[in-house]
């Protein structure tokens, strides 16, 4: 992500935190900035390595607490199948998530289709199942990799 773009995202996150009365602590902010600079999803331990350059005494719980917070605020999505994290491309509200994950270069693209969500919700309802969150992870090859 471009430098200006990640700055804009940090400012947006700061504003939202202020509105919600929650604190974007230095560690949370730092993790957010690292994710904003990444084009791909990144695992917790790689995040920790990067965080250590800014916060030398950072420990795994530092990262996990920051990630929990960022997920609660809807800033970050967890990709369960690869156990990694990616910044939400349009955070600010909770939404159903569909991820296109490239198996070759690791890029992650977030798409939003209400149609997919509604269909899933409808079919779940028919089974008497109440959906709380929904994340669809599609694996394959991105545009740059399938040539
Ligand atoms: Zn999102
Ligand atoms: Zn790719």
TrEMBL record:
<keyword id="KW-0479">Metal-binding</keyword>
<dbReference type="GO" id="GO:0045892">
    <property type="term" value="P:negative regulation of DNA-templated transcription"/>
</dbReference>
<keyword id="KW-0805">Transcription regulation</keyword>
<feature type="binding site">
    <location>
        <position position="142"/>
    </location>
    <ligand>
        <name>Zn(2+)</name>
    </ligand>
</feature>
<feature type="binding site">
    <location>
        <position position="105"/>
    </location>
    <ligand>
        <name>Zn(2+)</name>
    </ligand>
</feature>
<dbReference type="InterPro" id="IPR036390">
    <property type="entry name" value="WH_DNA-bd_sf"/>
</dbReference>
<comment type="similarity">
    <text>Belongs to the Fur family.</text>
</comment>
<keyword id="KW-0804">Transcription</keyword>
<protein>
    <recommendedName>
        <fullName>Ferric uptake regulation protein</fullName>
    </recommendedName>
</protein>
<feature type="binding site">
    <location>
        <position position="102"/>
    </location>
    <ligand>
        <name>Zn(2+)</name>
    </ligand>
</feature>
<keyword id="KW-0678">Repressor</keyword>
<dbReference type="InterPro" id="IPR002481">
    <property type="entry name" value="FUR"/>
</dbReference>
<dbReference type="GO" id="GO:0005829">
    <property type="term" value="C:cytosol"/>
</dbReference>
<dbReference type="Pfam" id="PF01475">
    <property type="entry name" value="FUR"/>
</dbReference>
<dbReference type="GO" id="GO:0008270">
    <property type="term" value="F:zinc ion binding"/>
</dbReference>
<dbReference type="GO" id="GO:0000976">
    <property type="term" value="F:transcription cis-regulatory region binding"/>
</dbReference>
<feature type="binding site">
    <location>
        <position position="145"/>
    </location>
    <ligand>
        <name>Zn(2+)</name>
    </ligand>
</feature>
<dbReference type="InterPro" id="IPR043135">
    <property type="entry name" value="Fur_C"/>
</dbReference>
<keyword id="KW-0408">Iron</keyword>
<dbReference type="InterPro" id="IPR036388">
    <property type="entry name" value="WH-like_DNA-bd_sf"/>
</dbReference>
<keyword id="KW-0862">Zinc</keyword>
<keyword id="KW-0238">DNA-binding</keyword>
<comment type="subunit">
    <text>Homodimer.</text>
</comment>
<dbReference type="GO" id="GO:1900376">
    <property type="term" value="P:regulation of secondary metabolite biosynthetic process"/>
</dbReference>
<keyword id="KW-0963">Cytoplasm</keyword>
<dbReference type="GO" id="GO:0003700">
    <property type="term" value="F:DNA-binding transcription factor activity"/>
</dbReference>
């Amino acid at each position: 992500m471009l430098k200006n773009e990640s700055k804009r995202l940090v400012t947006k996150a700061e504003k939202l935190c202020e509105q919600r009365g929650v604190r974007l602590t230095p560690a949370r902010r730092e993790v957010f900035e690292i994710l904003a600079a990444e084009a791909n999803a990144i695992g917790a331990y790689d995040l920790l390595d990067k965080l250590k350059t800014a916060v030398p005494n950072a420990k795994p719980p530092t990262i996990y607490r920051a990630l929990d917070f960022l997920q609660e605020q809807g800033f970050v999505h967890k990709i369960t199948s690869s156990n990694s994290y990616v910044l939400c491309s349009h955070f600010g509200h909770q939404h159903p998530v569909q991820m296109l994950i490239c198996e070759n270069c690791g890029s992650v693209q977030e798409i939003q289709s209400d149609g997919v969500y509604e269909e899933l919700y409808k079919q779940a309802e028919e089974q008497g199942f109440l959906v709380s969150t929904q994340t669809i992870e599609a694996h394959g090859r991105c545009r740059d990799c399938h040539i």
